[in-house]
Amino acid sequence: MEANNRSVVKAFIILGFSSMPHLQALFFILILATYVLTVTANLVIISVVKANQHLHRPMYYFLCSFSFLEILCTTSTAPKMLESLVEVRSTISVAGCITQLYLFFALGSTQCFLLAIMAYDRYLAICHPLRYPAIMTMWICTRLIRVVLLGGFLAPLLPIIFISRLSFCGTEEIQHYFCDAGPLLRRSCDDASLSSTLVSVLASSVILSTCLLTIISYGHIIVTILCIPSTTGRQKAFSTCASHLAVVVVYYGTAIFIYVRPISRSSSELDKVVSFFYVVITPLLNPMIYSLRNKEVKDALKKGLTKNTVFPKSWRAFSMVCG
After folding, report:
1. What 3 state SS string does the chain have?
2. Which of 6, 112, 167, 198 is deepest in the core (most CB within 10 A)?
């Protein structure tokens, strides 16, 4: 009866940074600059790999796919965050909110699966170098990407279906920067325990299973590197996977903190800070660490800028910042 007496919510108000009005202009500039840099950096990676024949290898094919996912994942949240900073009432319909949540979960799941595949690719390249060209062909790479995309977009379907059947009432306000699962489920006037459990189980399963597979791959890689007799050989082998491992630590560290636990009934400021880092900062760090600190990518980028054949002159400053 209590739920029936409340007005049903048809749209939500994204509060974002409304508790800090004096900092909203600063946050807008920071998020806009980070978003533009993230999209630009990932487009640079895709363009460099596409323009250089010697980079048409499985490792860089996966990197391009990861960069494309980063662009999509950031674009699914950043524009609404920016709108919440300039609009007095930044609203989003219930259907739009659930759609944003689905895209965020699907793209995040796809990234987890892809990181595991990329770690396995490095394992094959370092631990089985003679068999690597025969195992990891471009035909295999293409089909692995298709499987990753299919798995990533199918994984969150069940919890999203249950969430879409919930009714939302009471306050229209969402205490977050975008439509994440926790803030959305707190607005439900139905029993959301099943949906909450499904989200937690899904997130924990995807994140922990892919993280475990990644750790196993890097465990084998480290053991193999330590067995290489020459110091130069060890340094060269380690340099090919050190940047990968750094991204894995940053990505999974924040993802595990946010999603590998039951959804709480209340929001904490620490959750919002870590979520902000995961959604805004991590997508910018990934291309910097993963590719633009890669010697082959850097050399190809500098060569393209020098010849003025790949990028416009306005991107030269970006190249200087990246290395």
Report:
1. CHHHHCCECCEEEECCCCCCHHHHHHHHHHHHHHHHHHHHHHHHHHHHHHHCHHHCCHHHHHHHHHHHHHHHHHHCCHHHHHHHHHCCCCEEEHHHHHHHHHHHHHHHHHHHHHHHHHHHHHHHHHHCCCCHHHHCCHHHHHHHHHHHHHHHHHCCHHHHHHHHCCCEECCCEECCCCCCHHHHHCCECCCCHHHHHHHHHHHHHHHHHHHHHHHHHHHHHHHHHHCCCCHHHHHHHHHHHHHHHHHHHHHHHHHHHHHCCCCCCCCCHHHHHHHHHHHHHHHHHHHHHHCCCCHHHHHHHHHHHHHCCCCCHHHHHHHHHHC
2. 112
